[in-house]
# Entry
Amino acid sequence: MIELINFYLIPGIVLGCIYALGAIGLSLVFGILRFAHFAHGDLLTLGAYFALAVATTLAVPALWALPFAIAATAAAALLLDRLFYQPLRARHSVATVIASFGVALMIRSVVQLIWGPQDRVFESGIRPPLIIGDFRFAERHIYIVAAAAAIITLLHVFLTRTRAGKAMRAMSDEPSLARVSGINTERVVAWTWILAAALLAAGGLFLGIDTQVKPQMGFNLILPMFAAAILGGIGKPYGAIAGGLVVGLAEELATVPIGGTALVPPSYKSAVAFVILVAMLLWRPTGLFRGRVF
Amino acid sequence: MSPELYGLMMYAVGLLTLGGIYAIVSLGLNVQWGYTGLFNLGIAGFFAIGAYASAILTAPEVSSHIAGLRLPVVLGLVVAAAASGIVAYAIGRLTLRLQSDYLAIATIGVGEILRLILKNEAWLTNGALGISAIPRPFEGLPPPWDQFAFLAVVALVIALIYVLLERARLAPWGRVMRAIRDNETAARAAGKDTMRFRLEAFVLGSMIMGLGGGVYAHYVKFISPEAFEPMMTTFIVWVMLVAGGSGNNRGAIVGPLLVWTIWSVTEFATLRLPPEWTTQAAYLRIFLIGLALQIILQKAPRGLLPEPTVLSSVDKEKTAGPRARPSR
# Structure
């Protein structure tokens, strides 16, 4: 039982937090801009590399680099939207999905050009885990979960207390009604990108702290993030948080050996997200929180 | 013939053969995206299914995985198309009733799952070691005739698919497809079972991609999971079709030949760079081809050879012919 908590439950929650940070933005972009944004994972990669660059050049702890990474990733997201998505949006082109797929590869090639293909780490060396009774907590896991919880609380305040946040939820819930009530669509779009990029920079930083920073790190998350967004209901930020945690926990818990054999062999761990995705599309495409279906 | 000229000729033959294989895959994507507006981001997956299906059925016996059936290549290719079609049918049934973005998400998943299967199910696919000594038709001929003969096989396959797809495009089936792509509500109001038609287009397109994968396996004679970098294969086929002109089958052949030529000639050029620049140049090429896609999507969305807007011969007869009745 203790092993279950130490080796599966805690890593599952950490992974779930990272998925949630990515899935919130993915869900909002899908809900507000109406397209599946395939460059979302690679934008997370970019955020992680920005954080790494700041942390190594200024020689500060990884978490201190977060504000810089957020600013840089948000600027990158706004630039990408202006250059590649906005022109197609203005023409109502369905090709935006393909454009985002192309943007994903462009981001990755830029990352590889600047930082090279090799894996990087924020800090090397192994720190002893915190032992409380029988529980073992890795220090990084504690502050990843705490920081993710703080960011999600800030997100909640933003979405419920600010004009921009309320406008964003209105756009996501009922776009035509939002437009006739005088909401500035392009401003909401800009806020959506800034919010999504901020969450991605945090997600990228946390994933980089937990594992390594590498060029494919974000693309490998695209399926779990989509699964989480669809599970939570497209356009529902709170649904995406729940979805992220469910997918992260499911991936870890499905590989728990029960009587010698696991439900899912560890080598097929990354298939779990796909199974959840397909199951949701089959039984409940609106997601658990009744999001939109296009 | 001087050795340089001979080398250049063989390079051109190889270029045309691989470009032609991409053209087969691109024709498959054209049925899905060009005709019907279906987003398939799992092209590499369907391509790999075809390649492995045909390779497993035709390769000589080895102890490490199931092989040694040594079936004829033609049968291997038929199974390649069929296996790809079956997977496409299952995925299509799940996702085609939703907006095409969901199909794109699900097909990316197919590519991922397939990569896992190729790596992990060594009894079937020989895992990371891959399958070698896949037979190539006409490999017994003296060079360069073996290469020429295989290029002829590729050309024949393209010609067959082209004729089939052109007939389908001009037939009522093709008209329903365009109707679904341009206005699905209207197509449904006209009594068309749009779900069934979309499924047919998705399965047909994936079968052609699987066939392309089979032809590829027999050309390169060795396949392994590394050969199917999912993002890159899928992406380059999209660039090829969009550049050539989606909706136009001739564009779906010209685009791949052109893009593949540019891709491979620039690769050839970067190989002459100092070694420390070679990897950098590879990333720069990917970036530039991504940028090219964005420019085409924005500035020339109809591609090199735009989709023909002509009506089918039947329509022409009806509207312009002497016995035309006034339309209501």
